Amino acid sequence: xxxxxxxxxxxxxIIDEAVRVLDSAEYNLNRASKLQNSPNKxxxxxxxxxxxxxxxxQIPEKDKKQKKIRAYSIAYECDETSAxxxxxxxxxxxxxxxxxxxTYWEIQPYITFSSKGKNNIEDWIKYLEKxxxxxxxxxxxxxxxxxxxxxxxxxxCEFWANCTDVFSINNFCNIYRERxxxxxxxxxxxxxxxxxxxxxGDNRLHKCFLELLKCxxxxxxxxxxxxxxxxxxxxxxNYVCGSIVDLFKKLRASSIETAxxxxxxxxxxxxxxxxxxxxxxxxxxxxxLKAINVDKSNTDLTKIIRIAAFITGKSYKKLYKDANNRxxxxxxxxxxxxxxxxxxxxxxxxxxxxxxxxxx
Length: 360
Hints:
The chain is an all-alpha fold and about 350 residues long.
């Protein structure tokens, strides 16, 4: 069985990467806390010195960086060139912010963009400069848009492209569920709530941001960007994973419904057909023949009756007698059968019906 999982596999990669970003948040943001909690006393003193330098209003901003580099040089017992590299590493959150940005725009399910009039990255960046002014890394966002990453709707379309037989839905559900095993997560959103990261002293990321600000490693603008994008990334990841779960539930339900309909049809087909009135049967055959321009006006009645006798298994003489005397219906006796055959005609989209008030 050749199954195309291209969309599924790509969305799984995106979800897994989103989870890696969220799981790594504390690691990427605890640089100041590591100095504070280090068993190395020199690093503890470095943390305290950085806090004092950052908070001291008597030190001009232009001099604070140099004083911090000297503090690094003392703590790590290195020259100021090496100390500068260590300091700049601890202050560099751009790579992490770009990673968050890229992953969020890959997974986010809320916004779609029309490509009309936009043929390349430059066109997209010009467009985004107007309408996404809060986004810093417009080149990353533009690349993601151009790549047209898969959505949950794409997974549903892929499913139906693979499952062309409605009676195989359940089997394909099992195949897809196995493909998605261990890739549908539920992120603890309370860890990434904006208010918690800003104000909750027990929130692990709040502590990280607080120490980064105290040491002057991160600006308020950088903090706000990373914090809000972490929140939106956690929310989007949970939404997409939940939507995949809901999709499988919907597909499974359609499989059950199909099975019930099939079982019902089988039961109906296996029920014995009761004996039908020869008048209704004959009128039915005459209407069907009339639909192909065969009736008493252009065909010998005996020929029509022979066809009817063959199909119904009824007596030729009786059918001929009914037809020759013109067929009329007893409404109390024939109504149910006429309603039944008319329903069958309707279900088959045939423009044919038996008129209970008509003579045949």
